[in-house]
Design brief:
The complex is a heterodimer of chains A (336) and B (572). Chain A has 336 residues and is an all-alpha fold. Chain A has a single domain, classed as MetI-like fold. Helices cover 71% and strands 1% of the residues of chain A. A two-stranded antiparallel ribbon of chain A has the order 1-2. The radius of gyration of chain A is 24 Å and the shape is elongated. Chain B contains 15 helices and 19 strands. In chain B, the strands form six sheets. In chain B, strands 8-9-10-1-11 form a five-stranded mixed β-sheet, with no helix packed on it. In chain B, strands 4-5-7-6 form a four-stranded antiparallel β-sheet, with helices on one face. In chain B, strands 14-18-13-17 form a four-stranded antiparallel β-sheet. The chains are: A mainly alpha (336), B alpha+beta (572). At the A-B interface, strand 1 of A face helix 6, helix 9, helix 11 and strand 16 of B. Chain A: It is a multi-pass membrane protein.
Chain lengths: 336, 572
């Protein structure tokens, strides 16, 4: 085995070992991180809540769009009647000021939009990033130049402003959540493409790739069978961090009024409507803000955990717990 | 004032929207009795009044101000032939003399109006005000570079339609005669009994020709009122007015002019303005706002605090928010569909969406619920408070939509609680109960305004609003329902495309009346008659609530503007 292959194996990217062992190793490493496990549980719960939104609201006996004028004090600007924002056995988290719509129902339906849009956008970003990153690394010099400069331009563009512009020109008949996911996806793939290109450039010099090339494999086969497994680790890591950032972008776009359309609830939209109510009906602002905070925090911690589990150096530290000495040794061995 | 974002006939958009903001924003006590919070409520002269505003006074040229926009800070500097009666409530909807000795003397058919100026009127430099200056002031408002005023003068004055102002056309307007220094005569091309209302506009303020600097005049307009401009920074963002020693209270029964100094600071965020007024610290204790209302959330907080609640002025401006139908688009060509929607509306949820019962009153008439407009109560399609979905379904069945109906409601994305998404979703929810599925089409503000006022792009079903240029039925009903005012190329306000001979004839007949009470009654009856056609669904009349500082006294809010009258406020 060559030095390069050793390094590749250390990086968990050696495809000559049985497929199961990489994943097993990953799980073993992830298991040792309690914060990541808690975060994973929270994320799973959030996804479950989002998927089960109709069930949960049926259980509560409410829906996210029905108005309840009698539950707000019309003479006082429409502030919810009763303590804790009108929370009761019928309305678990109280009602929205002015409309009396059920806040629990809006929050769980809002989770669908926030999580759905963020995940879909991440898929788009990853797909474009891998395609262009690999193409740049494997293509001719001019292809690389062209794609890399294009990537630079995309990375340099301010995401929010571009999204605002794109969302403003698309006709309002286009399904809004899909549009928002597409727009975020189409603008935010730059860094993934860069990471993939860099990783591919490293991998393609490795012996097993050279061997495949010498055996007469086509570029496509090499990319698919020899390179893709190698770039999976950094891509998964980065994608896990993209999801929370996409959630905040969706929230920001909805906050600015160009995200999903009313009456569809989304957390960003709830925040927009709630910001003026922070004194008169604080729970109205705290609920979507808290949900957003917990989701982004959980996804970020989980993403961090995934990266640690995939990163051999950090992993070795975790496994043996002897710290720097061994870590530097492993690093030295890799580059010798 | 016409509708806020509607720049009437595409006159300078910026100035008009500013004006509208200023006019629409209103305040002042109708319920409270117009007294400050302090123990001694007698107003005294002296002190500095601070004005905290969101919109800078970008236009300070009397030619460029729209009707209601000229009614506040500019009204301290510009006197006009007639003016608003500065009193609380309905009494404030009357027109009273200002520079003139009376509200105007019409000929028999109200086509010729004659005014005589009071004696002893002077500008800030001591020179006398003459009738020729008023004529010149009106003429320069026709100059394209000084656009922004309401279109009435161009429509009403004989031979004014193509007039380009005194800079291009030295001869001036023959329709205005000045036989001597104190007399001015207006010749109109049709009877207009409401001319005295028009003469309250700042276009009727005198402008001395020798001091006119064209578009630069607004930097230092020559004052005929109790204050003069001593500072104007950043295009009206900071204004300082001080007493005009040449002004004499003996010739001005309307402006009280208690403070020595007025300090206007604008460009502030509306929440900052309300926060500063509620804190009432330092100079803010003697502060008011002329353009910022309390929003629903702010109102919820203020009503929970006795001290703050005592410092809220309430005003009623003649204004209606409504649903408009375009009967040239299916299914709104069918009166039964329009009636069904009228029945299905849940006004309590719409009122809540607009900020609750303190900020909006449910409307079933197109005319505002004020006597001066000729308010005649009617409710042709009684929806009770929460809507009558059963009756609506019945009508839909008769119209051939037994299985329900899907329609698109166009609204703006403005955060104004008027044509905004909140109102649209409340309507959507109410119509759902009647089997009508409403799809929402939210448009960016300018796009929305352009679309609904162009007959070629007008949607079938949309949110709209209308405000009065003066408190009378004429400017409220005619632009919306006069068939001859349907504009094919340009801004059209007759969105229901109504061209009914009997309606047109009645509008003409009422315009000949110079007895304004009589005219009001006829406008009310006309409104009731037009209401039967279900071309609109009146939703609510807004109510304006505004905070003022602790030291503010003599708060007067008329129904004409619904806004605290800055000429009456005292801070000592």
């Amino acid at each position: 085995m060559s030095e390069a292959l050793l390094a590749a194996r250390a990086a968990g990217t050696d495809t000559t070992v049985p497929a199961g062992s990489g994943a097993r190793q990953f799980w073993r490493r992830l298991r040792t991180q309690h914060a990541a496990l808690v975060a994973a549980a929270v994320v799973a719960l959030l996804v479950l809540v989002a998927l089960a939104a109709p069930l949960l609201t049926a259980l509560e006996g409410q829906d996210p769009t029905t108005y309840h004028p009698s539950l707000v004090d019309s003479a006082r600007g429409g502030v919810p009647v009763g303590p804790l924002g009108g929370a009761s056995a019928d309305h678990w988290l109280g009602v929205e000021p002015q409309t009396g719509r059920d806040l629990f129902a809006r929050l769980v339906y809002g989770a669908r939009v926030s999580l759905g849009v963020a995940l879909a956008a991440t898929v788009v970003q990853v797909a474009i990033g891998i395609t262009l990153g690999v193409a740049a690394a494997l293509g001719k010099r001019w292809v690389d130049q062209l794609l890399s400069r294009f990537t630079d331009i995309i990375v340099a563009m301010p995401l929010m402003i571009m999204s605002l512009a794109l969302l403003a020109i698309v006709p309002s008949s286009f399904p809004r959540p899909v549009l928002v996911a597409l727009v975020i996806g189409l603008i935010g793939w730059g860094n993934i493409a860069r990471i993939v290109r860099a990783q591919t450039l490293t991998l393609k010099e490795l012996d097993h790739v050279s061997a495949a090339r010498l055996s007469g494999w086509g570029t496509w086969s090499i990319a698919r069978r020899e390179l893709l497994p190698g770039i999976a680790a950094p891509v998964i890591t980065y994608a896990a961090l993209l999801v929370p950032s996409n959630i905040t972008v969706e929230a920001a776009l909805s906050f600015l009024g160009v995200g999903v359309k009313p009456p569809t609830p989304s957390w960003g939209q709830m925040l927009t409507a709630a910001d003026v109510w922070y004194q008169a009906a604080p729970q109205y602002l705290l609920l979507p803000a808290g949900a957003l905070f917990i989701t982004v925090l959980a996804l970020t911690v989980l993403g961090d955990g995934v990266r640690t589990a995939l990163d051999p150096r950090a992993a070795s530290r975790l496994r043996v717990g002897t710290g720097r000495r061994r870590e530097s040794k492993a690093a030295g061995g890799g580059t010798a | 004032m016409r509708h806020p974002s509607v720049t009437a006939r595409r006159v300078a958009a910026a100035s008009v929207s500013l004006v509208l903001a200023a006019g629409a924003a209103a305040c002042g006590p109708k319920d409270n009795d117009a007294k400050g919070a302090g123990g001694d409520s007698t107003p005294h002269k002296g002190g500095t009044l601070t004005v905290l505003n969101a919109n800078p006074q970008q236009d300070f040229d009397p030619a460029r101000l729209y009707t209601s926009g000229g009614g506040n800070v500019p009204s301290l500097v510009f006197r006009t032939l007639t003016t608003r009666n500065r009193e609380n409530g309905a009494a404030g909807a009357k027109v009273v003399p200002d520079l003139a000795t009376d509200t105007g003397r019409p000929n028999k058919d109200a086509t010729v109006w004659t005014y005589t100026l009071k004696k002893g009127l002077k500008y800030e430099d001591g020179t006398p005000v003459t009738s020729a200056d008023i004529k010149y002031g009106i003429e320069r408002s026709f100059a394209p570079e000084l656009s922004g005023g309401a279109p009435y003068l161009r429509d009403w004055l004989v031979g004014a339609a193509g007039y380009q102002g005194p800079y291009k056309d030295k001869k001036g307007l023959d329709a205005i005669e000045t036989p001597d220094e104190r007399t001015i005569v207006f010749h109109l091309n049709k009877p207009e009994g409401e001319f005295p209302y028009l003469a309250t506009q700042t276009q009727f303020a005198p402008v001395p020709k020798s001091k006119d600097t064209g578009t630069k005049y607004e930097e230092h307009p020559v004052s005929s009122g109790p204050y003069k401009v001593v500072r104007n920074e950043n295009d009206g963002e900071r204004l300082v007015l001080e007493r005009n020693p040449q002004w004499s209270a003996a010739t001005d029964a309307e402006r009280k002019a208690y403070p020595d100094r007025i300090d206007v600071r604008s460009g502030l965020d509306s929440s900052v303005i309300n926060q500063r007024l509620s804190a009432s610290q330092g100079a803010d204790a003697a502060a008011v706002t002329t353009d910022t209302n309390l929003g629903p959330a702010e109102l919820a907080r203020v009503t929970g605090d006795k001290d703050l609640a005592s410092r809220v002025g309430t005003g009623h401006f003649g204004y209606t928010n409504y649903i408009a139908f375009n009967p040239s688009i299916k299914p709104f060509d069918n009166a039964k569909v329009r009636q069904a929607i009228s029945y299905a509306i849940d006004r309590s949820s719409v009122v809540n969406a607009a900020g609750g019962s303190a900020l909006a009153e449910p409307a079933t008439t197109f005319l505002p619920d004020q006597k001066s407009f000729g308010y005649t109560p009617y409710d042709h399609f009684p929806a009770s408070k929460a809507g009558d979905p059963a009756k609506a379904r019945e009508l839909l069945k008769e119209a051939g939509y037994a299985k329900g109906l899907t329609v698109t409601l166009t609204h703006s994305n403005a955060k104004d609680f008027e044509t905004s998404p909140e109102i649209a979703t409340a309507i959507q929810d109410a119509l759902k109960k009647a089997g009508i599925t409403v799809k929402l089409q939210g448009l960016e503000e300018n796009d929305y305004s352009d679309k609904i006022h162009d007959v070629k792009t007008e949607p079938g079903f949309f949110l709209a609003h209308w405000g009065a240029d003066w408190p009378s039925g004429g400017p409220f009903l005619a632009p919306i329902f006069d068939g001859r005012q349907i504009v094919k190329d340009g801004a059209n306000f007759n969105t229901g495309l109504l061209n009914d001979k009997s309606v047109n004839a009645e509008i003409d007949a009422i315009n000949t009346l110079t007895d304004l009470d009589q005219a009001a009654k006829r406008w009310g009856a006309l409104d009731k008659k037009i209401g039967e056609k279900a071309l609109t669904v009146p939703l609510f009349h807004p109510v304006y609530k505004r905070l003022y500082g602790e030291d503010v006294k003599n708060v007067v809010i008329s129904d004409w503007t619904g806004v605290l009258d800055i000429s009456q406020v005292a801070v000592k």
